[in-house]
Amino acid sequence: MYREAYAELAEWKEDPNRSPLMMTGVRQCGKTYLLKKFTEENFEDVAYFDLERESSLSSVFDDDLDPRRIIAELGAIRGKRITPGETVLILDEIQSCGRAITSLKYFDQDMRELAVMAAGSLLGVYMSKGSSYPVGKIRTVDLRPMSFREFFRAAGHGKIIDAAMESGGKTSIPKSFETILESQLKTYMMVGGMPRIVKEYLANGDLSKTDRLQRQLVRDYESDILRHASGSEFANVAQVWDSIPAQLSKENRKFIFGHVKKGARAKDLEASLNWLTSAGIAHKIRLAKRPGLPLSFFTDDSYYKIYLSDVGILRALCDVPFSEILNPSGRYALQMGAMAENFVLNELTDLGASEIRFWRGGTSEVDFIALLDGRVVPFEVHSGKDGRYGSLRAYMEKYEPEIAVLTTMNPYAAGRPLKLPLYAIWLLRKILSRSEEGLPPDGGI
Fold first, then answer.
1. CA 54 to CA 224: how far, in whole Å?
2. Is 421 in a helix, a strand, or coil?
3. Could you tell me if residue 16 is inside a domain?
4. Each residue of 180-196: pLDDT tens digit?
5. CA-angle at 33, arms to 31 and 38, nearest 5°
6. Residues in CB range of 407: below 8 A, 6 or more apart
7. What CATH number does residue 73 fall under?
8. Are 93 and 122 in contact (CB under 8 A)?
């Protein structure tokens, strides 16, 4: 399956002054698959080592961290010399060996002619013991679960993606394409973007297996918490994790520590929440009091919402039936709203939006405001075809943004606000670039 991070790896390969590359991400987001695919297609020789599976390899890094000694020993272990300029060295599951993480500093300083790539879970790298993180000595790539655009391409609709991107947002997608996009978005909301789960679903279309795999991944995350969290911290981290679905299923989604544990205060559980966000499992979206730049200057750090890295995992945690996504009854309206917001957040992150916040003014609340291509853009999100936008209207009247976006399951419509279907968030930058050319975004999507 094609991953857009492949292009970033290709850029790194061509850099004559490349540092070692470290790819991190949550469990099962496809790090190993992507590194193997890229290196097999772009290097003469691949020296691959799994430091978790082959725990004895850690002893190679116990002595000094001289790169020449390390590659000599690793070459002897694999039975073939590691040759700078020909071989790429892959250190997978690098979080299992803290000194291997530290060694990347010396590969950067003393052996840049050797291509070195590493991969590890964000949680493991964050918690890795015995390591000195090589700040400024490596290039990092944070691999996320598959975006809707990547999923849509994997499902065999790459030509629709290419046609839309090549048009630059200046020509409409035919109605028949909109039907396909809407159908595939519903599938994505059920399946999510974890590559193994996506691959299994696309191979057999078995939603019951999808559900089993999602719930197994949730258990794997919980096992990681047990493995990495200290004894005193484990209970708090686990309780915060367990509370996220209920917190998102509230009307205002605000994260309240008292709902995690009766009588708990922020100072008691803040570190446990930060543990999850640092591991990439959860995302903290804070309140911005006003849309000034930089948004960090106007952020209230004490008021925030928590979302997950993958919408499919959120569906499993919230126990939303697949039938509710295909034909909403209204019984799971709060959970469906949370899933739609989580989807938009993940899509905005994939687009490169930064400083993502939400805004509240009186009784009005805008789900997200984000810095995108130099502009602060507000977003109101609906999971269905509800076209009301009272909160967004209040924001627009107060701040007069250059562009505001209402996202629903309705078709595209230019204007203020720009009405953008949930299945077309990935085209937003093209639409914004059209407005930069002095043209109204009225050509459809």
1. 19
2. strand
3. yes
4. 999 999 999 999 999 99
5. 95
6. 340, 344, 379, 380, 381, 382, 420, 421, 422, 425
7. 3.40.50.300
8. no
Nearest-angstrom CA–CA distance, 287 and 272: 20
In a domain, 307, yes or no: yes
DSSP run (H or E) holding 155: none
Residue 272 CB partners (closer than 8 Å, separation 6+): 233, 236, 237, 239, 240
Judgement on whether residues 96 and 41 belong to the same structural domain of the protein:
yes
- Expressed as residue numbers, the domain containing 362 is 148-436
Residue whose pair of structure tokens reads 């003469």 in the numeric block: 44
Domain count for the chain, please give it.
Answer: 2
At residue 127, the pLDDT reads: 61
CB 295 within 8 A of CB 226: no
CA distance 299 to 288: 4
With a cut of 70, list the residues of the chain below it in pLDDT.
Answer: 123-124, 126-131, 167-173, 230-232, 434-445
- The reply to whether 225 and 328 lie within a common domain is yes
What is the spatial distance between Cα 309 and Cα 328, in angstroms, rounded to a whole number? Answer: 23
Contacts of 72 (CB under 8 A, 6+ apart): 82
Domain boundary among 109, 126, 142: 142
> Which residue in the block uniquely carries the two structure tokens 């995992």?
313
Q: Is-contact 359 274, C-beta < 8 A?
A: no
The whole-angstrom separation of Cα 329 and Cα 320 is: 12
Domain boundary among 96, 118, 142: 142
* Beta pairing partners, 85: none
pLDDT digits (tens, 9 = 90+) for 358-384: 999 999 999 999 999 889 999 999 999
Residue 304 lies in a domain: yes
Report the alpha-carbon angle 195-276-360, nearest 5. 100
Cβ-based neighbours of 413, under 8 Å, separated by 6 or more: 419
SS3 content of the chain, % helix, strand, coil (to 5): 50, 20, 30
- Residue 216 sits in the same domain as residue 350: yes
Exposure string over 51-85, b if 16+ CB within 10 A, otherwise e:
bbeeeebbebbeeebebeebbeebbeeeeeebeee
